[in-house]
Design a protein that fits this description.
Number of helices: 5
Number of strands: 14
Strand content: 15-25%
Helix content: 10-25%
Structural class: alpha/beta
């Protein structure tokens, strides 16, 4: 996933998407909140201005939208509908660290979560970033690559959510993450790299814990060491017994990242004694989001709801 690749197409390389005239905005009543008061740390020039793209290929009969060249990360808060459970989820869309599938793996996820009484925090993190490259195993200097700027944005967001938990009617002990594809890798990174901020503290938010209380990883990428060693966990995700509980879902016919991504993380969690639940389906491919099809894999959100009850994050 060096470019925005769903199983349907490689977005840039094969011209499978076209530019939209507008810049992405959340639905009315939901404002984007900048997560950095000034220039973000480790700021780098983007290839171009932020823009929204629409895919020609369809997912469950509908197109998807993606955001490119995010230099100013934001979070958008979606309050729960009806009864508030106190739980909150920071949603991390995927897109190969080149773009963000903002509706398929973002706003549509928030629609589901808020309907279940969960506050949704949709993070528009910086892309392109520098992910671990499973096609290489290493970079020229011999070290593994990590998604520094994107992870900085996630760390910052976790602190902000807990700082403003009372204002947003959130239980600070029930804040989780849910990531898709590259966002799934970020969910694992923040689950294992929460103790030390990658940037100098900005304000009180950076004194709050960045550790998620739970993590949901949907067809995650970059978690295996590489294509020549695809059963060992990427060392940039150092699992310990303090890593939060995780829920994993993936299809065996996922040819974009491959099922070994989830298996590597699952085995590391089990070895460390961390509660983990994994659902592996025969078919489903990659980047199906929450859109319903005839395939059993699209029932995964209901399994997540049951799991959240099981680990004490939700109640009847």
């Amino acid at each position: 996933m060096r470019v925005l690749v769903f199983t349907l197409c490689a977005v840039i390389a094969f011209g499978c998407i076209h530019a939209a005239a507008d810049v992405w905005q959340p639905s009315p009543g939901h404002a984007q909140i900048p997560i950095w008061p000034r220039t973000p740390p480790d700021d780098k020039p983007m290839p171009g201005p932020e823009s929204v793209w629409t895919g020609h290929s369809l997912v469950a009969g509908r197109p998807y939208r993606a955001i490119l060249d995010v230099s100013l990360p934001t979070m958008t808060i979606y309050a729960p509908k009806g009864k508030n459970t106190g739980a909150a989820v920071v949603v991390l869309p995927g897109g190969g660290f080149e773009a963000l599938a903002i509706d398929l793996e973002g706003t549509e996820v928030c629609d589901w979560l808020t309907a279940k009484g969960i506050t949704c925090v949709l993070l528009k993190y910086r892309v392109p970033s520098e992910p671990y490259d499973p096609k290489c195993d290493c970079r020229p200097d011999g070290g593994l690559v990590t998604s520094t700027r994107s992870l900085e944005d996630v760390q910052r967001t976790m602190g902000l959510v807990r700082l403003r938990a009372k204002e947003w009617h959130i239980d600070p002990h029930k804040v989780g993450v849910l990531g898709f594809s590259a966002g799934g890798y970020l969910a694992a990174e923040i689950s294992t790299k929460y103790r030390q901020r990658l940037y100098a503290a900005v304000d009180a938010a950076d004194k709050e814990s960045a550790r998620p209380d739970f993590a949901v990883l949907v067809y995650p990428g970059h978690l295996a060491r590489g294509r020549t060693d695809n059963t060992t966990l990427n060392p940039n995700v150092p699992v310990t017994p303090e890593t939060p509980p995780a829920f994993l879902v993936q299809a065996e016919d996922d040819t974009t990242d491959g099922v070994n991504q989830s298996l590597a993380y699952y085995m590391a969690l089990k070895k460390a004694g961390v509660p983990v639940e994994m659902h592996l389906y025969a078919t489903g491919g990659h980047a199906f989001g929450l859109r319903r099809t005839a395939l059993p894999i699209t029932g995964w959100p209901r399994l997540v709801e049951t799991w959240l009850h099981t680990i004490g994050m939700l109640w009847e």
